[in-house]
Design brief:
The structure is a homotrimer. By secondary structure, chain A is an alpha/beta fold. Helices cover about 40% and strands about 15% of the residues of chain A. Chain A has one domain: DsrEFH-like (Hypothetical Protein Ychn, Chain: A). Chain A has a five-stranded parallel β-sheet with strand order 4-3-2-1-5, with helices on both faces. In chain A, α1 runs parallel beside α4.
Chain lengths: ~170, ~170, ~170
């Protein structure tokens, strides 16, 4: 048997598609990763928007899913603050203040997270509901995604982790 | 002493009365229940709306509580999405998409949770504030509720659980 | 070695600057404190507003941070409900209902938390972004604050705690 202490683990459910909550999620994930923790992020509901491509339309079956995916287009460049979005002015201001303070932007935090081995899991139930086909996930930046799974996979990871957050 | 491994446990604080967050709570709770985990849900603040009856007025003492319970009527049929509610159109669309994808609706998930032994606890402090009398809880679907308790009861369960979420 | 059982621990990330979520955070923190648990609260993003002074302007460097800190002024007296704020009427009503039900107001809960030894830690990253200088934190009620730290400090506490919540 291996006597080394087990790595500490964290899971984060990224439910919200808002910029400020996505930033909080990835600041925690990258910090944990750089401390040697094992981190798994589960993207669900509006949180799927964080992993959508910024370019092109999203093909989705049926008129309702087309409408939903037009309104709820997603992509890191389109995320809003949860308050003070102000038609984009507030969100742009926060991005500028982050740059001034040398805080990495969301895109950079996401790349850092991947480099640190943070796992990105996409919720299959949310995909089904929103017409984002798991078999043909043209809407997502698939190079970022480590897998597609449901709540049981999340719970398996969470029961084994020291820190579990719903953001 | 019993040598069987103890059951894994989860607690969820259902703070928000929004449909999407209620769905996330119950998808997690029913999945955990079907995996043999012990699940306790604490309904507090706006989360009380999930357990209110859909029918009839809510009797509440005093003019302010009457106003609050009229605005904040609650009941599963009245819950909104946290975004894209759009006067009800967005919320109706999500319910339709769930049905198309064979995802159980909130009502069904709640029944499944009860069948799986998930415990529903109502926060007494929130009840007091909102004029939902604990001794005469005519506003609630009492057949769903396993008990009324405060934060100390929650903390007792949470310190003993592997997974604790605030939703 | 000391044979007494270790104290149970809780951490709370106070992300939201909304009155109802702040109340939930402090009701949990004071209850845990009175049960003998060790509680650490991390104030980040909009949650910094809970610790801002109610009086005077907030000096901040640069026009954008001045604007942000004017819009996002903070202080316990200015926190809104997450719903039914209604230009202040809803928020005032909830405060009145709390008083009627003998639920302590936010200010009182914060004082109780300090008396019970709950630790208040301010997120340095958020401070940097919002122009709330860590070295000269004139915006904050510094007598309440136990320290300024980043995500690594939070994760150190969280991996050691039984209950971790993001509110």
């Amino acid at each position: 048997m291996d006597d080394r202490p087990e790595k500490k683990k964290m899971t984060i459910i990224v439910f919200s598609g808002e910029l400020d909550k996505a930033l909080a999620s990835f600041i925690l994930a990258t910090t944990a990763g750089s401390m040697g923790m094992e981190v798994t992020m589960f993207f669900t509901f509006w949180g799927l928007n964080v992993l959508k491509k910024n370019e092109g339309p999203i093909k989705s079956p049926g008129i309702m899913r087309k409408m939903l995916n037009r309104m709820n287009r997603g992509g890191t460049k389109r995320l809003h603050l949860s308050k003070f979005h102000m038609m984009g002015a507030g969100t742009a201001m926060i991005k500028k203040l982050m740059a001034d303070s040398n805080i990495p932007q969301l895109e950079e935090l996401m790349r850092m997270a991947k480099d640190l081995g943070v796992k990105f899991i996409v919720c299959t139930t949310s995909c089904g509901m929103m017409g984002l086909d798991v078999q043909n996930p043209e809407a997502f930046r698939t190079e970022l995604i480590d897998g597609y799974a449901g709540a049981a996979t999340y719970l398996g990871a969470a029961t084994d982790a020291e820190v579990n957050l719903f953001i």
